[in-house]
Amino acid sequence: MKVELTAQQKNAQAEFRTFVNEEIVPDANHYDQEEYTPPKLIEKFAHQGYLGAILPKDFGGKSIDIITYGLLNEEIGRGCSSLRSLLTVHSMVSYALCKWGNKSQKEYWLPKLASGEVVAAFALSEPNVGSDAKSIETTATLSGDSYILNGQKKWITYGQIADVFLVFAQCSGKPSAFLVENNSPGLSIKPISGILGVRASMLAELHFQDCRIPQENLVGKLGFGFSYVASSALDYGRYSVAWGSVGIAQACLEACIQYTSERQQFGVYLKEHQLIRQMITEMIANVKAARLLCYQAGYLKQIGDPTSIMETSIAKYFASTTTTKIANDAVQIHGANGCTSEYSVARYLRDAKIMEIIEGSTQIQQITIADYGYQEYMSQSTPTVPQKILARM
């Protein structure tokens, strides 16, 4: 079967690439060093309609197909993984509200999210809770017509500037999801700096001290927080990260092809050395393989195939682990230059490692994929994704 983009998808891809080359690539290293994303860049990003990419046109979104959304993530990830992270978390919240929000929540929030008037962040991780997301410790207690939140969230992407958070908390022992605006009484926000990669993603800690929010800010039903709201959003997040990893890998490949065509050692260009050519060959093959897995996951999502969840995990696992190796080789090819901020490959390596941790670590993906593999190949019936696997995703 030949994998070929439609004319519309190719045009969109060209648009994305032009935007990234003109508006992101020139200053991406600077954003990384400053650990900051300029508001004007986010405004341009929103003006292009990228923050509302997956939302229906009825709410002001672009309603692009899932493959085109993947291409957007690849191109943005090629330029700046931090900005791609904004696309990820903003889209996760948008998708969760579109799927699980009530009518009034959709009518109020979705147009604002689509236009970029409001920036959203996804608040699940905590100081003591990462992969074991069902064990969140933040609590929500119903008091009259309000919920009172107490607890702490950590590693919240763009938490420093987000206008609204999708917060997950235990309510009477039931994991539930709530919308919390950044000016809610009892919410304080503390910036996180000095992280390894995606350093411009403006991470933050959220502290809830008797934080009162309206009762109508509950998203979905009590107890829907993890199994429904978070799980569906995280699946979109993994898809975004998989494509974003491909973007980093592609950036590494392009940087290495340029560098080895300009740099000379022992009287010839680096690209003439056999071991360099071997490394470039492996990069090319692995970038193409990762991209094909992302295409497969996207296609299955597009047609509503339930196996898309597992195929997305496989794509995320392969793309993120492969990209770390590609980025490591890219630094090696650049030598001492690759260890400086003058060349982007140092940033690519740091960002690539983050891809192995976020939206389900490499080890969680390995456990999940192996469980599915045993179920698939030992069962005589058509394989589905078991509930015990979904519980970890």
Write a short abstract of this structure.
The protein is built from twelve helices and ten strands. It is an alpha+beta fold and 393 residues long.
How is the topology of this model organized?
Blueprint: H1 7-24, H2 28-34, H3 39-47, H4 66-79, H5 81-100, H6 103-115, E1 120-123, E2 139-143, E3 146-156, E4 164-171, E5 174-181, E6 187-191, E7 204-214, E8 218-219, H7 225-262, E9 264-265, E10 268-269, H8 274-302, H9 308-334, H10 345-355, H11 362-378, H12 387-390
Parallel strand pairs: 1-4
Antiparallel strand pairs: 2-3, 3-7, 4-5, 5-8, 6-7, 9-10
Helix pairs in contact: 1-4, 4-5, 4-7, 5-6, 5-7, 7-8, 7-9, 7-10, 8-9, 9-10, 9-11
Structure description:
- Helices cover 53% and strands 15% of the residues.
- The longest helix has 38 residues, at 225-262.
- It has three domains: 7-118, Butyryl-Coa Dehydrogenase, subunit A, domain 1 (Orthogonal Bundle), CATH 1.10.540.10; 121-225, Butyryl-CoA Dehydrogenase, subunit A, domain 2 (Beta Barrel); 228-390, Butyryl-CoA Dehydrogenase, subunit A, domain 3.
- Helix 1 runs parallel beside helix 4, helix 7 (225-262) packs antiparallel against helix 10 (345-355) and helix 8 (274-302) packs antiparallel against helix 9.
- The protein is of the alpha+beta class.
- A hairpin with a 2-residue loop joins strand 4 and strand 5.
- The chain contains twelve helices and ten strands.
- Keywords: FAD, Flavoprotein, Oxidoreductase.
- Its cofactor is FAD.
- It holds the Pfam family Acyl-CoA_dh_N.
